[in-house]
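Researcher: Here's a chain I'd like modeled. Treat it as a single chain, no partners, no ligands.
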Amino acid sequence: MTTAGQQDQAAVPRVVSILSALLQRVAERNDAAATAEQQQGAAGRRQPVSAFQGLTKPSISVGGYLERIFRFAGCSPSCYVVAYIYLDRFLRRRPALAVDSFNVHRLLITSVLTAVKFVDDICYNNAYFARVGGISLVEMNYLEVDFLFGIAFDLNVTPAAFASYCSVLQSEMAYLDHPPPLLDHCYSLAAAGAPDHHHHDDPAAGCHHRHSHQQLTV
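Model: Modeled as a single isolated chain. Structure tokens:
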């Protein structure tokens, strides 16, 4: 017999858990890199001043936060793929910004908000998204504007680009189900740290290993 809680859990699209796992891994890796630099007394590369950077780590996990957005914001599954694309575009244009536990939640709520307005016919307003995300309306509005300028208002997503990022998420799903023991999984999502004008919206174009702060390379 299936309980109501199990039915609710089953209703969460797999794309939500896949995207949250990807971002959680990137944030933890960058957290570890920053901690190692501090312990070694190295100057390291400091995070740039950013509206997305919080002073403390939120108590809710990335997975719990994205699931909360799904349950209360009513976004279609396609929105999470488009949010993933927008986040990649944002990070390509801000290569000095590393996704970590201090900014990943704000980046998520803002990228999903931006995506739902572009993809879905009906969506909640910024005040509602601010409550879902646990931030003020003023901050939500500011983050949205900063994010839009960060992606140069490049909101259009071609079918080819959408399919390409879906393939990346499918690869992530396979990785989660059967993780290779020794391989360093890599997806690119702003992996190169700078825009690749020859491979725009190709998530595999800049995939490579990095030894310092990583963007969305996993």
